[in-house]
Structure formats: structure tokens, C-alpha cells
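C-alpha cells in:
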């Protein structure tokens, strides 16, 4: 009794063995934990004084899964599936005592026990799908035996965490015990079941729910159909479905073999490698080498926003959602009312969909105050400017803010492209100024580029990053340059997309390979969605580009029913003969003979220049690390997670291949195109972006 190993303790109280695991931060099932559980279970089983066993974890949570840092390394016995079988074979009642999150391998371990008890705040889930995997320790075969195949399908393909109450209703948790009493309650529960001397049933032998679904292939066909859009491009959801099919149609041991084969296939594939990389990238992004995590931050209790347009309104919602009061400033009453009206409509639509309580609409609107007076921002802790994208206008606003807003407040600009240092110089406190670049729609998109100026203080940076987290964004710290990380790389792609129109490709020809690659849409469909008239004005339009001509014809994108594409009532896009003619006329005027451009060329010419731009961004230290660039593209532009972001993707293609292709395309990429020296160097050395540590 006592310590089994460094992370496992075994004690016996009143006939109940208590195995306690302590492996911070999340009790991941690394080798020592697996070994400890098996040894402790064997000891408890062999001890005649023990009547039942409780498995419980110290710290913030029950096992949150297999240890992801061990993935990709040679496995060391005992493997997790074997651990679960060892638990299952214990001859006395075993009880998993759950708090925090029992996830992945953690829930699989719990499914090896005869019983599961949990506190009300506990959550259960099989989130492996988010790592491009499936539960590989019997979860796919045991879970449907308890909750039924429908619920299991939903859980393994969504990776959702379900709360203790739902888990209890589904049969996954046998008893919910009072918060704060887990240890004592689990022991009491163990004593009770030991005293009842019930016949112990292993989950693997509970077959009624899977048998009931046998011979009903439509269950799976319907599920696939209903989720086809959501699963597009991903391998893991389909593989997860196949394992549940196996649970329904095959005996347990055969189903386990299917699980093993499919798990290993996913684990060895590039999609899971990408998704695991993203898991760690999302956590690394918060770490800023020269701003330690204990840097003091400033309290943000009141926010001011200037401009109630497309962005200002969305930005305001983020703060209202987090319970932070916001004052919004506009120049005209009409613009203010329109802006606040859009916000209200947004909240009401969410409420109609049942995703917000009606009383919360008023609560959130109550946190928003509109005004035409900049002076009302005097006592704000943070002011975010979201006025027109014009340097003179922005400098004027910042000059005024400098005089009005209290000292010690943060002054931020939502500019997409402009020089944040120049904006900061319009004030006498540039160390308090930075960019907070939200993405549209600002209340929905997760990305926030936190733009650090030359003089922005560390405290301001730390506060902005913390605030990003608080309002549910993923903050990426970037430096000042035209377009920062996301839009600067986007520009490299747009330049090629435009160029290819003049060489003979139509917008839909360019969009298709990018959509097939996994992007939500191609560059031209994206233009139509955003509106082709952003930054366009009738007065200055000179019919000098395809876009200008389209705008002049009032083909300004989806909102006018036509842009590059024609749109029907349901906003379905169709290739447009009008656009085709405009493009052909331009090409003819330029004396270009149209050629057929292969899908491969389109894809490579759109993506490789972006990668090249990403390399320049790293050279210039605009981004801290390659994975931060990937986080920008995944969360700001819908880059497919299963391809890990542009920099990770480049590594999978091979940097030498990327360089060779860029050289092959040569002059087609434009007279100003230059290969990044960093990219060339890494390629020549046979290295990857991921080697830049
Ligand atoms: N393995 C290794 N490290 C893990 C881990 C895991 N399963 N889960 C979390 N961590 C690490 C994180 O990397 C982070 O490390 P850091 O502090 O050095 O950056 C630390 O634990 C804390 O994690 P979070 O910052 O994410 O903490 P939160 O409190 O926000 O969230 C959590 C906790 C909900 C448990 C979240 O970490 C999470 O979702 N973890 C992953 C769960 C998961 O995917 N489990 C399945 C694993 S695959 C599996 O089990 C395969 C099996 O079927 C065979
Ligand atoms: P918008 O034109 O929809 O809104 C701007 C609003 O600012 C207008 O309502 C206008 O009346 C108001 N305004 C102008 N000058 C003002 C002043 N001095 N005081 C108070 N209000 C003033 O523009 P949008 O799209 O919201 O853009 C705002 C900023 O956000 C720009 O810098 C833009 O580059 C940036 N941005 C835009 C994105 C987009 O997709 N629209 C995405 C990310 C950033």
C-alpha cells in the first residue's frame, strides 16, 4: 500500500481500495499512469481485505485523455487498450470517480470500470476526432453499448463534452454525487455496490443496444448524409462512424480489431499529424518570449468603440457578451441608430434560434450606450477605433483621444492595413497604443490579430492577449507591416488569382481547386460575399479592372444578386456569362491569348506565394513562430484544420518542392515576385518551418 509509483497511490479504507492518480496538469494517461493503474488494480484485486475499488484523480480533472505528447513515439507497454482490459478483469466492483473532464482515453478508462460516479460539474467526451483520430482504447466499442449507437455516433464525430446530467440520463454516469464530496461519495457508492453483491457486468458484455440497431444500415447512411457538409474533407469523422458500425454489426473482439486498424491508419496519416500540431499551436500562441506570463495586466471594466459600422458593431458585441459595458461613438445619429439596430437584430436572430435567452438580448443591449460625443470615452480603460480605413481620419481620431481619454487607458485601432506606429505617433503616449485587428463578422470569427507597435508596452500586450481570451478569441501577436499576417498573405494569393483571370482562367476555375483543397470558398466567391465595392467609389471608378467594371454595372457581390458570379434567390452561385465576357475583353485588350490552366497550377500559384510571404513574415519577425501564422489562417480564413495551416502544409509538401515550383512559375508570378531567402535556405538545408524553434 502507499505509493505505487511517482504518480499513483493506493490506500485501503474500510474495505475499499482507493487508487489516486496525481499527474498534473490534466492527469493524462502517460506511461507512468498506465503502469501505476495496472499495478494498483492487481494489488487491490489480490488483497482479500478489499471489497471494491475506486479510481480517482487529484488536481483539476479526471484523466483528460492519452498523453498526446507520447504520440508519434514508440509505444511503451502497458498500452492503454490493455490497461482498460486489466481494469475490466478485476474481480471486484470498480468505480471511476469523475471530476473535471473525463476525455478520450480518460473516458475509456472509466468505461473499463463497472461503475462511474461524477460531480455535477464534470464532463465526459471522446474528443479524439479533433485530433484527427478515433478513440483507440475500446471507446468506440464500449460507448455504444451503454448510450446506444445514435448517441455514440454523435459523441465520437462531434467530440463534444457532455455534462454530468446528460451523461447520467444516457446511462454513462451511474450516480451524480454532491460537488466537493467526490472521494467520500465514491467510497460510499463502492461500499454500497460491494454490499449488494450484484453480478458484475463488464461493459463489453452489455449488448442489447447494439443488437437493437443491427440490420438498420439507414441509421448510418442518414447520419453521413446529414453531416456531409460538416465533415467535408476530414477523414476522422468517417472512420469514427465505421467503428460504431463495427460495434453494431460485429462481436466485441472483432469490433476492437476494426477500431485498432482504423486508429493506426489515422495515427500514421497526415491529417492527424496536422490536427495534433494545431492542438499544441493553439496553446503555444499565447506564449510571448519577451512578455512573461506573470506580466501584470490592466483591468478592463469599460470599453469605448469608435464607429458603429460593420466592424464596430461586431466588436461591441464581443464585450457585451462578456458582460463588459461599451460606449459606442458615431458622427451622426442616423449611423449610430443603424449600428445599434444591427446589433439588436443580430441578438434577436440568435434568440429566435434558441441560442440566447430573450431576457439576455435586453441585458446585452443594456450594456451598450450610444453617443455622438467622443468626450464620453474619457473614463474608458480601452478604446477601439473602427472608423473608415483612412490614415488622416485615424490620426485625427487618435489625436483627439489622446486629449480626452484618461491616462493609463489602452488605445487600439482595428485597422486592416495601416501603419499602427504612425497612428500611435498621433498621440503623446505611443506605448499605450496597439492594433486590435478583428475579423469580419467580428462577433463570430475567432481570430484577433494583436498588433504590437514599436513602442507598445509589455503590459499593454499582456492585457490585450488576456482580454482576447476573455472574449473568446484566439489572440495572435503580430508586428506592424502592410496587412499584418493574414491580409498580407492573402494579398499574395489574390495577386495570382487576378493574374490567372488575365491568362485564361475564369473565377470559377480558380475557386474550384481551392474549395476542393478544403477552403470554405475560393477568392472570387469570397470577394462576392464580402462585397466587391469595399474601397470602391463611383466617382473615382475608371473601368480599369474587372472588379471596377462589375461594380459600375451594380454587380457588387452577393448583396446585389450578382458579382463575379450570378446568384439565385437562395444565394446559390452560378458562373456568369457577363463576367466571362468582361474578362475576355480585358484579356483581348491586353493582347493575351487565353490558355487552359490546370487545377494543379491554380492551386500551387495561389498557395505557394502565400507560403513565401509567410516566410518573409518570419524573416521580418512580424510573427513569432510559423505555427502562429497557421493559427491566423485557420481561424481567420477557414484554412482546413486537417492541413494544419499554410506553413505546416508547406512542410508536408517539402520546402524544396515549394521553392522549385516557385522558380518554375518564375515570371508568371509577377515582376516584383522574390523568393524569401529564409525559405530558400531552409529548402537547401532540407529543413522544415517546424525546425525553426
Ligand atoms: N496530453 C498531453 N498534454 C495535454 C493533454 C493531453 N491529453 N491535454 C492537455 N494537455 C496539456 C496542454 O498541452 C497544456 O499544456 P501547457 O500548459 O504546457 O500549454 C495543459 O495540459 C493544460 O491544457 P489546456 O491549456 O488546454 O487547459 P484547459 O483547462 O483549457 O483545458 C482540457 C483542459 C479540456 C483537458 C484540454 O486540455 C483538452 O481538451 N485536452 C485534450 C483532451 C483530448 O483530446 N483527449 C483525448 C486525447 S487522445 C486519446 O485519448 C487517444 C485514446 O483514445 C487512445
Ligand atoms: P464601415 O464603413 O462599415 O464603418 C465605419 C463607421 O465609422 C461608419 O459608421 C462611420 O460613420 C464611422 N465613422 C467614421 N469616422 C468617424 C469618426 N471620426 N468618429 C466616429 N465614427 C466615425 O467600416 P468597417 O468595415 O466597419 O471598417 C472599419 C475599420 O475596420 C477599417 O479600418 C477597416 O479597415 C477595418 N476592418 C474592416 C474589416 C471588414 O471586413 N469590413 C475587417 C477588419 C478590419
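Residues out:
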Amino acid at each position: 500500500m502507499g505509493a505505487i509509483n511517482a504518480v499513483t497511490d493506493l490506500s485501503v479504507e474500510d474495505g475499499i481500495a482507493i487508487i489516486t492518480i496525481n499527474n498534473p496538469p490534466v492527469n493524462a494517461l502517460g506511461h507512468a499512469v498506465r503502469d501505476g493503474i495496472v499495478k494498483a488494480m492487481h494489488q487491490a484485486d489480490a488483497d482479500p481485505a478489499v471489497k471494491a475499488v475506486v479510481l480517482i484523480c487529484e488536481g483539476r480533472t479526471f484523466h483528460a485523455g492519452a498523453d498526446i505528447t507520447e504520440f508519434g513515439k514508440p509505444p511503451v507497454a502497458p498500452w492503454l487498450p490493455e490497461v482498460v482490459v486489466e481494469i475490466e478483469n478485476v474481480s471486484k466492483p470498480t468505480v471511476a470517480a469523475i471530476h473535471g473532464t473525463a476525455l478520450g482515453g480518460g473516458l475509456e478508462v472509466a468505461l473499463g470500470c463497472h461503475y462511474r460516479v461524477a460531480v455535477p460539474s464534470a464532463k465526459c467526451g471522446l474528443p479524439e476526432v479533433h485530433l484527427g483520430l478515433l478513440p483507440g482504447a475500446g471507446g468506440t466499442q464500449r460507448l455504444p453499448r451503454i448510450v446506444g449507437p445514435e448517441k455514440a455516433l454523435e459523441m465520437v464525430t462531434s467530440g463534444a463534452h457532455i455534462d454530468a446530467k446528460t451523461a447520467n440520463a444516457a446511462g454513462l454516469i451511474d450516480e451524480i454525487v454532491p460537488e466537493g464530496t467526490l472521494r467520500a461519495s465514491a467510497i460510499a457508492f463502492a461500499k454500497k455496490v460491494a454490499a449488494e453483491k450484484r453480478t458484475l457486468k463488464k461493459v463489453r458484455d452489455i449488448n442489447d443496444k447494439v443488437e437493437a440497431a443491427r440490420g438498420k444500415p439507414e441509421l448510418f447512411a442518414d447520419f453521413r448524409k446529414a453531416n456531409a457538409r460538416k465533415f467535408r474533407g476530414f477523414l476522422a469523422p468517417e472512420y469514427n462512424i465505421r467503428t460504431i458500425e463495427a460495434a453494431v454489426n460485429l462481436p466485441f473482439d472483432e469490433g476492437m480489431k476494426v477500431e485498432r486498424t482504423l486508429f493506426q491508419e489515422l495515427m500514421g496519416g497526415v491529417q492527424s499529424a496536422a490536427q495534433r500540431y494545431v492542438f499544441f499551436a493553439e496553446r503555444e500562441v499565447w506564449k510571448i518570449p519577451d512578455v512573461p506570463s506573470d506580466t501584470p495586466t490592466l483591468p478592463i471594466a469599460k470599453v469605448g468603440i469608435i464607429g458603429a459600422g460593420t466592424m464596430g458593431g461586431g466588436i461591441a458585441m464581443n464585450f457585451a457578451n462578456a458582460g463588459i459595458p461599451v460606449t459606442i461613438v458615431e458622427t451622426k445619429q442616423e449611423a449610430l441608430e443603424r449600428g445599434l439596430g444591427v446589433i439588436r437584430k443580430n441578438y434577436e436572430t440568435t434568440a429566435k434560434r434558441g441560442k440566447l435567452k430573450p431576457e439576455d438580448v435586453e441585458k446585452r443591449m443594456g450594456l451598450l450606450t450610444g453617443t455622438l460625443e467622443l468626450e464620453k470615452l474619457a473614463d474608458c480603460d480601452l478604446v477601439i477605433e473602427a472608423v473608415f480605413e483612412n490614415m488622416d481620419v485615424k490620426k485625427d481620431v487618435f489625436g483627439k483621444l489622446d486629449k480626452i481619454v484618461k491616462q493609463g487607458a489602452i488605445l487600439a485601432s482595428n485597422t486592416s492595413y495601416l501603419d499602427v506606429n504612425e497612428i500611435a505617433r498621433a498621440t503623446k503616449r505611443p506605448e499605450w497604443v496597439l492594433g486590435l485587428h478583428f475579423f469580419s463578422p467580428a462577433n463570430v470569427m475567432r481570430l484577433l490579430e494583436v498588433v504590437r507597435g514599436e513602442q507598445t508596452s509589455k503590459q499593454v500586450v499582456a492585457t490585450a492577449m488576456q482580454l482576447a481570451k476573455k472574449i473568446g478569441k484566439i489572440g495572435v501577436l503580430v508586428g506592424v507591416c502592410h496587412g499584418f499576417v493574414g491580409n498580407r498573405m492573402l494579398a499574395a494569393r489574390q495577386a495570382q488569382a487576378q493574374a490567372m483571370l488575365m491568362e485564361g482562367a475564369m473565377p470559377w476555375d480558380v475557386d474550384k481547386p481551392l474549395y476542393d483543397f478544403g477552403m470554405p470558398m475560393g477568392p472570387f466567391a469570397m470577394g462576392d460575399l464580402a462585397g466587391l465595392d469595399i474601397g470602391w467609389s463611383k466617382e473615382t471608378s475608371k473601368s480599369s479592372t474587372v472588379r471596377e467594371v462589375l461594380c459600375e454595372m451594380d454587380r457588387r457581390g452577393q448583396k446585389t444578386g450578382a458579382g463575379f458570379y450570378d446568384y439565385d434567390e437562395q444565394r446559390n452561385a452560378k458562373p456568369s456569362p457577363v463576367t466571362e465576357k468582361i474578362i475576355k475583353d480585358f484579356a483581348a485588350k491586353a493582347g493575351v491569348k487565353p490558355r487552359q490552366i490546370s487545377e494543379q497550377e491554380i492551386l500551387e500559384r495561389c498557395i505557394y506565394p502565400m507560403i513565401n510571404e509567410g516566410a518573409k513574415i518570419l524573416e521580418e519577425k512580424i510573427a513569432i513562430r510559423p505555427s502562429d501564422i497557421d493559427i491566423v489562417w485557420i481561424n481567420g480564413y477557414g484554412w482546413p484544420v486537417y492541413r494544419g495551416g499554410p506553413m505546416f502544409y508547406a512542410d508536408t509538401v517539402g520546402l524544396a518542392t515549394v521553392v522549385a515550383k516557385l522558380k518554375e512559375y518564375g515570371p508568371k508570378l509577377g515582376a516584383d515576385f522574390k523568393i524569401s531567402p529564409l525559405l530558400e535556405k531552409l529548402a537547401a538545408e532540407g529543413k522544415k518551418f517546424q525546425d525553426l524553434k
